[in-house]
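Entry 12.
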Amino acid sequence: MKKPVKIENPAPGAKPKGASYRPDSARFDPGRVAFWTYPMVIAWISWRDLDVVLTFWDEYRKYCWDHVPRTANGVTTLDIKHWVPANIRVLGAFARRASWAASDREAVDGPKVPSVSLTDAIRSVHAAASEGKISAIALDLEGNEVKIEAYSWSRLEVRNSDKWFELPIYVGDRRKYTDARFPRDEVMAVWPAQNPTVETRPVAEPEIILRSSPGKKKGQGSYAALDEPLLDEMAALLKNLSVASPEEAAKRVSSRAHGAGTIESKVERLAKRFRKRTSQNSAR
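Predicted 3D structure (C-alpha cells):
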C-alpha cells in the first residue's frame, strides 16, 4: 500500500481534500462492449445512465482509488482506498448515497436517485431472463463457459462476493455459476434508454474484453492498455523509494492486474512491461 499523505488540519467546518484516480474513460466505454455483468445490468435498469454503468464495471473499478482522510493523534492523513469489486451490496450503498445527496441541499456532487429501485431491477432481470427476453452466459464450477437456461432463473439467486469477476449464483444453498454476463444489446432493447441522446453503439474491436473464460487465450488481445494505470503506480512507488525494484512494485499492484493467471505470472508480466516502457521512454 502506498504511504499515506500527511496534510495540514483543515479549517473548522472544512473537509480535507485529497486526490482521486480514474482511468481514461475513453478506454472503458460500456456502450461499446458486447456483454455486461450482473451489476452493470442492474445499474442500467435503475439509472439508465452509461456513466453509472461504468461505475459498476469491474474492469474499470480495478484501477480506481480515492484519498480518504484519517485523523490520529491530532494529525490528519489521506490514506489511499482502492475501490472494491461491484456487487449488490455496493449497488445498495451507491443508491443510499444518492438518496442522501438528494435530501442534502448542499450536496453538489452526489449521484442522482435511481428511477427504478434496485429490488425491482433485480426482479425484472430474473423475470426477463426466465421469459427468454434476454440471455446470459456464465462460468460453471469447473470454469467452463455455459449458457444459463431460461427456466432456471426463477430459482437462481445472485449473492455478494468481494472477489473480482466472481459474483456467485446459487440454487438454494448450492453454488452453480459465477461471473454471469448478458448481451448489452439485448439489455438495452428490453430496457431502452430514457434519454434520447444515449444510443446503442456498435461493439468496438476488443482492446478491452470482458472475461469470457479463465485465463487469456491466444487471440483474445493484449492487456497492455489495462496495465498502463498499474505501470503508472509502479513508477510512482519507485520514484518515492517505496520499493527497490520493478518486481517489488509489481507485487504491490498485482492483485488488481487483469486476467485470471497466478499472482506470480502477473508480477512477471507487469515487471517485464514496466522495463520495456522505461527503456522506450529513455530511448526517446
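Annotation: DSSP finds nine helices and ten strands in the chain. Residues 263-283 form the longest helix (21 residues).
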